[in-house]
Design brief:
- The structure holds two protein chains of two kinds.
- Chain A is built from 20 helices and ten strands.
- Chain A is an alpha+beta fold.
- Chain A folds into four domains: 119 residues, Butyryl-Coa Dehydrogenase, subunit A, domain 1 (Orthogonal Bundle), CATH 1.10.540.10; 102 residues, Butyryl-CoA Dehydrogenase, subunit A, domain 2 (Beta Barrel); 156 residues, Up-down Bundle (Butyryl-CoA Dehydrogenase, subunit A, domain 3); 162 residues, Up-down Bundle (Butyryl-CoA Dehydrogenase, subunit A, domain 3).
- In chain A, strands 1, 2, 3, 4, 5, 6, 7 and 8 form an eight-stranded mixed beta sheet that branches. In chain A, strands 9-10 form a two-stranded antiparallel ribbon.
- In chain A, helix 9 packs parallel to helix 12, helix 10 packs antiparallel against helix 12 and helix 12 crosses helix 17.
- The two termini of chain A are 22 Å apart.
- Helix content of chain B is 26%, strand content 28%.
- In chain B, helix 2 packs across helix 3.
- Chain B starts with a strand and ends in a 5-residue tail after the last helix.
- The chains are: A alpha+beta, B alpha/beta.
């Protein structure tokens, strides 16, 4: 299985190539050991976090969150990605994704844990020198040291490289003196180690530093009052003549922006996984409520309007999950291949992740927007109780919202996903031009009226997918031709293209997962998964059509517009399905299991 | 410490979990646990070969609620059997235990070896840690065939409880009717 998985396409190539089901990883393939790790996360939340959600959010006990982190550290949950030689457990990328998903249901605690294990630990793991790794990683793995990541500044958010924080080498050349102000620092209140980004002297690019709280010159504001994740420590952190030994410069001078960007790639795919975990919890709660809540003499879960929501929630989560673990394994396989080719582990991990940066950005957007859909409908299913602060939907709804903002806003991630595809095409890493020209030729020719003779499972759906990819290439290709270097000024069009790409990637992943699963368990056992894959594709076609029309109508006129709209229509053709009955079947399964049980 | 389970392969994740939280090895008797006598015979067979000092088990399984296996195993091995044990401390060759009894608590001391049927709060809920999970992979889990046991019980039928009826609203002014219903229909008075 692992041998064939290495044939996976490169990052961004999903737009122009087909992937076979056997080449993707599906969550149903997790080993017994990985399932135990997942169970440990669930047990931990059930025992330590869920009974204390109010107490955590009240922030009355500043020692509570660090003590929970200590307990997570004792279980090894902070060291899953850290090699055994540095006190961790050296588990593979998808295992750490699984931990992130499971802990993702943990509200503020999930944020604290993922900031610590992700953006605070990984810069040292990937970019640190041997000395830095040996000094800091064992503590970060055990939880003895707690980490935070200081990138954002009051005037530097999405435009991260514009930060004003300065580092100046002191006279004896042994310390950098850091001055600056950092904002929205997760774990700021209790962290022992801060990864701080600042510019050395008049450098154009940021550099990164490992700063210990004990270095002095660090002060902070009170805890921020937030809409959600109220129990997550979020501070402004001020550096006033903070003396950082020169050996604590991370990687090379001027490498900070690259570090920030690469670490964020991992943060993004993991945020997607975390959102899947949070979504599943909300579905479990909402379905349970819908079955217990009786109106007009019957459980509201019996009503079509509620079944629609449940079917839709489950389908979106199934889709997001399918694509997240596909990316996870693709990253893992690329890392392995690079290491086999002689690349050092740290560098291979970065390159492997960078290779799939497009997919990471896509899944950040998809995961967070799925979660927001799920919590919104969760509130709706709870009705009046959904609006009550005493019921669980209140916290879920508020906590979900930040996911569309941090780790790069969804707008930034949409822009990035398209920008990266175009840059790779420009550099010749991604052969978009050939296929895009092919599509242009095709829309000028007579359409293929050939009947679908292949009645294999998903043969028709795969044809739809091939056409959807053509739709993306057609719209993106025309936009690039039209605007050339000025396309970046047409953000609305880029957003449309980003959404089209996202829908293609996720629909394909969902289909491939279901195909592979069906091969393992048979069609009958996978009937609901097949329903979800078909439903997702059906709706993805609608969304791709809408975004395509939006884009085309915003820049094409006359004959060109007419031809493109006809092409789009041709590429977004799909045989009708009974979406209502499909959603009902999915909902009935979820209601029967009283949980998201796929 | 050995974990013994009588069950089919779907019980293995639970056995691995026991290995992950500290057991040294495991034995699974590959059979459906048809009744208490069957299960007890299998456990006694294994215990005879291994001379365990202390055999701990639940006071009853959550699926069959028989509550007989510990007593049967004790009898088969000629060992004392105590149940339900809620607290247990081993001091040398003596085990100090506490049992919940009608109206109070009973403390007792028994010499090893013995069999105990345990019930909460006998032990803290322990979550397997990463190191435990990783080491569980390398710990031996032996699967053996059951020894033959003459079938002593046959389940003739399973019945579901009657579905819950809808609520009857009796207005306060018709209290006699309510009392009559509680006496004759619900039979709770």
């Amino acid at each position: 299985m692992e041998a064939v998985a290495k044939k996976a396409v490169k990052g961004g190539e999903f737009l122009i190539k087909e992937t076979e089901a056997q080449h993707i990883f599906i969550p149903e393939e997790f080993t017994e050991e990985q399932r135990m790790v997942a169970q440990t996360c669930e047990d931990f939340l059930a025992k330590e976090v869920f009974p204390r959600l109010d107490e955590i959010d009240s922030m009355k006990n500043p020692d509570l969150m660090p003590s929970l982190m200590d307990k997570a550290g004792e279980l090894g949950l902070l060291g899953t990605s850290i090699p055994e030689s540095y006190g961790g457990f050296g588990m593979n990328f998808n295992t750490s994704m699984l931990v992130t998903e499971k802990i993702g249901a943990g509200h503020s605690f999930a944020v604290a844990l993922s900031a610590h294990t992700g953006i605070a630990t990984l810069p040292i793991l990937y970019y640190g020198s041997e000395e830095q790794k040996a000094k800091y990683l064992p503590g970060l793995a055990s939880g003895e040291l707690k980490g935070a990541y200081c990138l954002t500044e009051p005037d530097s958010g999405s435009d991260a490289n514009s930060g004003k924080s300065k580092a100046v080498l002191n006279a004896d050349g042994r310390h950098y003196i850091i001055n600056g102000q950092k904002m929205w620092i997760t774990n700021g209140g209790f962290a022992d180690i801060y990864i701080v980004f600042a510019k050395i002297a008049d450098d154009k690019n940021l550099s990164a530093f490992i700063v210990e709280r004990g270095f002095g010159g660090i002060t902070m504001n009170e805890e921020e009052k937030k809409m959600g994740i109220k129990g997550s420590s979020t501070r402004q952190v001020f550096f006033n003549d903070c003396h950082v030994p020169v050996e604590n410069l991370l990687s090379d001078r001027g490498n900070g922006f690259k570090i920030a960007v690469n670490i964020l790639n991992i943060g993004r795919i993991k945020l997607g996984a975390s959102a899947v975990g949070a979504s599943k919890k909300v579905i479990d709660q909402a379905v349970n409520y819908a079955s217990e809540r009786k109106q007009f003499g019957t459980s509201i879960s019996g009503f079509g309007a509620i079944k629609y929501k449940i079917g839709e929630m489950a389908t979106k989560v199934y889709a997001s999950e399918s694509a997240s673990y596909r990316v996870g394994q693709d990253i893992e396989d690329t890392i392995e291949a690079l290491m086999e080719g002689g690349m050092p582990e740290g560098e291979a991990k970065l390159k492997g992740t960078e290779q799939f940066a497009i997919e990471c950005a896509i899944m950040k957007v998809h995961g967070s927007e799925t979660l927001d859909y799920v919590v919104d409908e969760g509130v709706q299913i709870y009705g009046g109780m959904g609006y009550s602060a005493d019921a669980p939907m209140d916290r879920a709804y508020r906590d979900a919202r930040i996911n569309r903002i941090f780790e790069g806003t969804n707008e930034i991630n949409r822009l990035l996903s398209v920008d990266m595809v175009l840059k790779r095409a420009m550099k010749g890493e991604l052969d978009l031009m050939g296929p895009a020209m092919g599509v242009q030729k095709e829309i000028m020719s007579i359409p293929d009226f050939g009947a679908d003779e292949d009645d294999a499972l998903f043969a028709a759906e795969k044809k739809v997918l091939r056409n959807l990819k053509k739709a993306v290439l057609m719209v993106a290709g025309a936009a690039v031709q039209k605007f050339a270097m000025k396309l970046s000024e047409e953000q609305e069009i880029i957003m449309d293209i980003a959404d089209m790409m996202m829908e293609v990637y996720v629909a394909e992943s969902t289909l491939l997962r279901t195909e592979k699963l069906t091969g393992m368990r048979g069609e009958e056992a996978c009937a609901r998964q097949i329903d979800m894959a078909k439903l997702y594709l059906n709706d993805a076609v609608e969304r791709i059509g809408m975004h395509g029309r939006n884009a085309i109508n915003s820049f094409a006129e006359g004959d060109e517009q007419r031809v493109m709209l006809m092409g789009l229509k041709r590429f977004t053709k799909i045989a009708p399905i009974n979406a209502k009955e499909t959603r009902r079947r999915i909902a009935r399964h979820v209601i029967g299991e009283n949980a998201y049980a796929f | 410490m050995t974990v013994v389970n009588v069950g089919e392969s779907d019980t293995e994740p639970t056995i691995r979990k026991a290995l992950a939280i500290g057991a040294d090895d495991a034995i699974r008797v590959n059979a459906y646990p048809s009744d208490a006598f069957f299960v007890a015979t299998q456990i006694a067979e294994i215990a005879r070969k291994n001379n365990y000092d202390l055999i701990l088990m639940g006071r009853e399984s959550i699926d069959f609620n028989g509550g007989q296996v510990h007593g049967l195993v004790g009898e088969m091995l000629g060992l004392p059997s105590v149940s339900p044990v809620m607290q247990l401390d081993v001091e040398g060759d003596t085990v100090k235990m506490a049992r919940e009894i009608e109206g109070g608590k009973e403390s007792l001391e028994v010499k090893l070896p013995l069999v105990a049927g345990c019930q909460e709060p006998i032990a803290e809920w322990k979550i397997p840690n990463m190191r435990g999970i990783m080491s569980a992979r390398t710990k031996p889990l032996q699967v053996i065939d059951p020894v033959g046991v003459e079938e002593s019980t046959v389940v003739t039928q399973f019945e579901l409880p009657p579905p819950k009826g809808s609520v009857k609203m009796i207005p306060a002014e018709r209290a006699e009717e309510l009392i009559a219903l509680l006496k004759n229909e619900a039979k709770v008075l």
